[in-house]
Design brief:
alpha/beta, Aspartate Aminotransferase, domain 1, seven-stranded mixed β-sheet, binds pyridoxal-5'-phosphate
Amino acid sequence: MTQRPIYLDGHATTPVDPRVMEAMIPFFTQQFGNAASSSHLYGWEAEAAVKQARERLAAAINASPEEIVFTSGATEANNLAIKGVAEAYFQRGRHIVTVQTEHNAVLDPCTYLASLGFEITVLPVQANGLVNLDDLEAVLRPDTILVSVMAANNEIGVLQPLSDIGQRCHDLGILFHSDAAQAIGKVPLDVQAMQVDLMSLTAHKVYGPKGIGALYVRRRNPRVTLAPQQHGGGHERGMRSGTLYTPQIVGFAKAVDLGLAEMTAETPRLKGLRDYLWARLQACDGLVMNGHPSQRLPGNLNLSVAGVDGQALHLGLRSLVAISSGSACSSASRQPSHVLKALGRSNDLAYATLRFGLGRFTTADEIDHVAEGVIATITALRSAAIDPIDQGHTVPEAIS
Ligand SMILES: *Cc1c(COP(=O)(O)O)cnc(C)c1O
């Protein structure tokens, strides 16, 4: 059997931590009740587990439990936040502001709203991937109802200045939503200090299960109203109907708890491995780091390689290491990543981009192995490009 590639695609998803799995298991087979069944023990058990998970998740972002609405993940949370606000506040205004480097789960709901007559401003970013606060302030208007800016970018890992943005929005009475799918459990989040009104969360980027997430919805100063996007039994105070997925909810809270408990030790460890990888790769010249060098997730390294064909580079690496070229969505459609384009990268550089997402189970040995393989592959591709006859390696044919 051939060796499986080393997994460094932690921005796409992460494995479930065995401690999370252990916490979830009883809720599949023993405590399997419906949290909405109020007439018997099975329901009470599930309800108690959901209540505890809700309290822990709320505490993790300095919210209160009634402000947590469980969803199937961050995609649904983003849709609920953006479309839910648009539908509830359209009489106040129809202008929404977001940013070019947002996830498609934010950009596409905005595009949809534009088709209904909302006006969307999509702000550019600076060359380092960060929003310029003056640019943001300049586009805010009396009819702006919502600003949506992510906490941490899923490709380049940059951390946006949420507190500064939140303050400007609140000064003007504009709601502020943040997609924190990549940030929860990895960097500190505080919805009070950051003045965030709506925050999207997901479990599967932080060693929790797939298919569960939440939307934080502020209840005071100001109280946010949302139009539900899914109607039914009136679960989650009417904001999101559907039987609560108890095992996933328990796993989500456990995963976030572990992330917080281990953050102090894990952050410097990941930064150390990430910086070591970047330093070792300097054996090759012509590498360009994408995104702010330090204001980024500790496990993120995103770089473009000058002078090699992107497709050949990825084909050359895929048996060694599982990484992405850009976002998962754009690698399927073979469009250059919209995030890298927003940073001003050429199509060639955008295609020749490696996104490394180091995580809890990444070891120094793995980083050494990957660094060697990446250096060898880049070197081979470059020498092949100069002299295709005299090549010591098999290089996949470049596809233009
Ligand atoms: C992964 C991700 C999403 C989508 O989350 P799901 O829970 O998979 O729906 C949204 N936004 C960002 C920034 C992400 O990284």
